[in-house]
Design brief:
The protein is an alpha+beta fold. It has six helices and 15 strands. Strands 1-2-3-13-5-15-4 form a seven-stranded mixed sheet, with helices on one face. The chain has a three-stranded antiparallel sheet with strand order 12-6-14. A three-stranded antiparallel sheet has the order 8-7-11. A hairpin with a 5-residue loop joins β1 and β2. The protein is globular and about 50 Å long. The structure holds succinic acid. The site of succinic acid (SIN) has 9 residues, from β5, β14 and β15.
């Protein structure tokens, strides 16, 4: 699977602010859309405390417009991240990765300088899309960043859907995709082959072989927009298609979705929190920092059963 994407403008290069008159004005939340077209940088007061409704509503509104939000200047510890997350919704159910010792709903995405096992989240995916009700949001807070590399890369499912011809859209609309965690967490999956240098506690299980059907195109419950809803790690087929047919179709769609025009590469800076919408973006954790430590704190928020309307 080809993850490498060249000539993608990074957050800094894309940092040109574009005017966006639809943002509600509050004195506390300042939303700056970035050029990628689905990403915004949001200045807010410190998020690790009880926020007033006006601030929360402005954040929710910004997130509906921009499925990837960057909150610079936030240095949330696991408790602070949990405090902010639960004001936006219920926590999601995070299987296959043991929770951090700090909080039962926070995962530590951790890689030590000496680790040689594959990077966690290193291929395109939408978090836990094999669940019947996959998470709506993921929040990722930087804690220790390597001196270089370690970007997180996003692709927009809205843009990918909108760029298809109407004939192709019509063909895809009735289809259901098959999702499974097997290639990552199953007994023959990636993590079953780990060496013992991995510092994250990953749980390999036969349960990961279960499958779940989701519409290949889903309608976002809040924006009402349609998005291509497939990903390289967890989408393993198309219901009713032969293996050879579905892999040809999926490979075409994976390549389509990972085009530079639909991508945003986030270069982390100290003290940043990211929040993305798994219902309409896919992402992967890039490498390029071997020999250095990287530690992030991660929370997910519960979602709903994907539907097409
Ligand atoms: C993830 O896929 O949840 C982790 C992303 C990252 O570490 O950048």
């Amino acid at each position: 699977m080809n993850r490498s994407v060249t000539n993608i403008p990074s957050g800094e290069e894309q940092g040109t602010i574009i005017p966006c008159p639809i943002e509600p004005q509050t004195t506390k939340v300042n939303v700056k859309p970035l050029h990628a077209g689905f990403v915004a940088s949001v200045d807010t007061p410190s998020l690790d405390r009880q926020l007033d409704e006006e601030t929360l509503n402005a954040i929710r509104h910004a997130w509906r417009q921009h499925p990837v939000l960057i909150f610079p200047g936030q240095d949330l510890d696991p408790t602070g991240l949990a405090t902010f997350s639960k004001q936006l919704g219920e926590f999601g159910d995070d299987p296959y990765v043991r929770a951090s010792k700090f909080h039962e709903n926070i995962i530590e995405v951790r890689r030590e300088a000496k680790e040689t096992a594959p990077i966690f989240g290193h291929s395109w995916h939408s978090d836990w899309s094999f669940q019947a009700e996959p998470p709506s949001a993921t929040l990722l807070q930087s804690h220790v960043l390597p001196p270089f590399g370690g970007d997180t890369v996003f692709a927009s499912g809205y843009k990918a859907y909108e760029a298809l011809s109407s004939a192709m859209q019509e063909m895809l609309l009735p289809l259901k995709a098959i999702h499974s965690a097997r290639s990552a967490y199953g007994p023959k999956g990636l993590f079953a082959k780990d060496d013992d240098t991995r510092s994250m506690k990953i749980i390999v299980s036969k349960d990961a072989e279960e499958t779940c059907l989701h519409p290949l195109i889903r309608t976002h419950p809040e924006s009402g927009k349609r998005a291509l809803y497939i990903n390289h790690v967890y989408t393993v087929g198309i219901d009713g298609f032969k293996e050879s047919e579905s892999s040809a179709m999926l490979n075409y769609l994976f390549r389509h979705m990972a085009q530079p025009a639909f991508i945003y590469r986030h270069k982390w800076r100290e003290n940043a929190l990211l929040m993305w919408d798994n219902r309409c973006v896919i992402h992967y954790a890039d490498g390029g920092y071997t020999g250095h430590q990287r530690i992030m704190y991660r929370a997910t928020l519960a979602g709903e059963r994907p539907v097409l309307r």
